[in-house]
Design brief:
Two copies of one chain form a homodimer. Chain A has 218 residues and is α+β, with helices and mostly antiparallel strands. Chain A folds into two domains: 99 residues, 3-Layer(aba) Sandwich (Glutaredoxin), CATH 3.40.30.10; 106 residues, Glutathione S-transferase Yfyf (Class Pi), Chain A, domain 2. The first copy, chain A, has nine helices and four strands. The radius of gyration of chain A is 18 Å and the shape is globular. Chains A and B meet through strand 4, helix 4, helix 5 and helix 6 of A and strand 4, helix 4, helix 5 and helix 6 of B.
């Protein structure tokens, strides 16, 4: 059954792979599933056809036969749950890997989103410069705790899992900020994620799409 | 096997049930599992014994035999996955219910957390009054989209599921802000959640704990 995901027609991230379709592409590559991509414009994302698929008007979405899903975490979990390669067999280890996925999305990512909002939506405000360090400290606190837990382990809990896939993806958003560099073990952790052949394939695929969409008209 | 969760020794929410242990209590009540609660002080939450259980120094945690979990979403998912009552039997419907759980935690809750941070951590700042409407609009945008999707349905996708449990729990955090009142169908949706006997038992249990901890010393 063909899997079709959606991605930005013209990604605004400069080809850095920070749009959330990269997370889904990575999961699909880890379990070895082929997929197709339908590109959606910013305008089309807010129109009824796409909103029927994604009530919050975002990408990615996931279609497979008569199943339609939205929300990156749910899509990545679905892939990990249905196919071997991203979750351990042992039930308790499985629950712990899933725990890290939720921790990435609901504990580590929210302050990172707040930082992104500050930079993207409030950089022209009078308070921007003074407020930025407060927001950065919220991110830093989480990184400090994560760094302490990871220590010199390779991955968060035993072998690489969907929890690492999601945590690395969330941390990648911090690269432009330089904040990650304060935690060398997290830098190395993210680099291990990026060095996985499945991540490289996912990154290259989104980069090819980015370049195609930003090519000058023939 | 005894299930033990952790909760604030002295909840800072005035007994309104907004601390995240209420979400876990609710899930346990929905599936009919008894549980014990270990109360943790703010000081103990940041000490090594608790950090070993919860790397981000928060509550709730979940212990059952040799399984130890943290992160509310992961705990609630674990309960829903292992016990009947919170997920539909049909595989596709199950994936959609899980989708709503992730949407609650990673799309709807982040702007609500940002609003909570503004009120809790920045109310003494010079920019607070001017910035607040911007943050409220971020929440409002998500509520508008959620309200449009819900329409006049009772729950988000068919029967009540773990997706509704999480979405209602996230929306409950907005009650003090008044923002929810702009969307009557969401107000009714949250009220339906609160009217469930399992929610009422969970709410009453956390309230009893709150009252016991705030009782003047005998």
């Amino acid at each position: 059954m063909t899997i079709t995901i959606t991605a930005f027609e013209r990604s605004p991230d400069g080809g850095r792979g920070l749009a959330r379709d990269t997370r889904v592409r990575w999961a699909l590559e880890e379990v070895g599933l082929p997929y197709e991509v339908r590109f959606v414009s910013f305008r089309a994302m807010k129109e009824p056809a796409h909103l029927a698929l994604h009530p919050f008007g975002q990408i990615p979405t996931y279609e497979e036969g008569d199943l339609a899903l939205f929300e990156t975490g749910a899509i990545v979990f679905h892939i990990a749950h249905r196919h071997a390669g991203l979750l351990p067999d042992d039930a308790n280890a499985r629950a712990r890997a899933i725990t890290w996925m939720f921790a990435a999305l609901n504990t580590v990512e929210p302050p990172i989103l707040e930082l992104a909002n500050a930079r993207l939506l409030e950089s022209d405000k009078s308070w921007f410069e003074e407020r930025l360090p407060l927001v950065e400290d919220r991110v830093r606190n989480r990184l400090k705790q994560l760094s302490a837990r990871l220590g010199d382990a390779e991955w968060l809990d035993g072998a690489f899992s969907v929890g690492d896939l999601m945590m690395v993806s969330v941390l990648l958003r911090l690269k432009p900020s330089g904040l990650l560099n304060e935690f060398p073990n997290l830098v190395a952790y993210v680099a291990r994620g990026e060095a996985r052949p499945a991540y490289e394939r996912a990154f290259d695929a989104q980069l090819a799409a980015y370049r195609a969409s930003h090519r000058p008209a023939d």
